[in-house]
Amino acid sequence: MKLSKLTSGNIFNLTHYARFSFFVVLISACSRSSDIAVQSMKMDLPADQQSFSEELLSGELTDLKITHKAIVGPAMQKFVFSEQNTDMFIFIKGNGQLKADSIKFDVCPESIAIPIASDSFSLEIPDGEVLHFVRFSKQLTTSDQEDIKKFNLDNKYQVFFRRFSECEPYTEKIKSPNTVSRTVLPADIIPRVSLGTVEVPGPDEVGAHEHPMLEQLFLGLAGNDITVHAGDKSVGLKEYSILHIPLGSSHWAEVVGNKKMYYMWMDFFITKEGQEWLKTHKPVSTGKNKK
Questions:
Q1: Residue 155 lies in a domain
Q2: What average pLDDT does the segment 127-146 reach?
Q3: CB neighbours of residue 271 within 10 Å
Q4: How many CB atoms lie within 10 A of CB 29?
């Protein structure tokens, strides 16, 4: 192939083109970074498969690994944990039993288990059941590891276990009076992490808000069918799907018609001080704590 001779005009044009291309790539990269990452889980296992595992939102949060796993009973699986990580198990479908040392819990859809002072536990799935859960394994900083030792002195949990329906309700200004919100994992059980649920029939919405002090995930629970907006982007979030809110974006969620909003929010705070955000959640008074 014959190459044309470079002139000063050619060089100017090439330089101009290179600069233009750089800005196009830069603008494109910025645009992609504001997209809302969402992934649906594979809930149907092949008939001949006894277990299944998939990684979710790979690379979205650098210190967090998210794995969806399904196990067909009868089966038993043991898990061993590291001091460098904290692990949260969110059970979304099916039933089983969790054993940690001498403690046993009956796990069911919409329950959570977190090993605190236990180095391992096992899950037993009975015949005829398919247990689906999502495991969140978060790296701990040196400061986190020191904090969690202090937490253990106060809360005495060997395994933190809760069913969502039993968790403390709260209200928030950005939500309608019809909304049922619950704090599933309060602050200072594990460092810089808090979880909760939001449930309301349509039509309704969670109002626009921002929280640059934390990374947030939404996990669609059974029956959830909503639209999530962040900046100028919108995406649907169905049941058994997980979504990452772009950091610092103004975002809101809506449910239309006779559909249902039912998701878990998962807050991963950048600093301990950022947990002050949780003071916007006002616990609902019950008969037990009324004066």
A1: yes
A2: 95
A3: 11
A4: 9
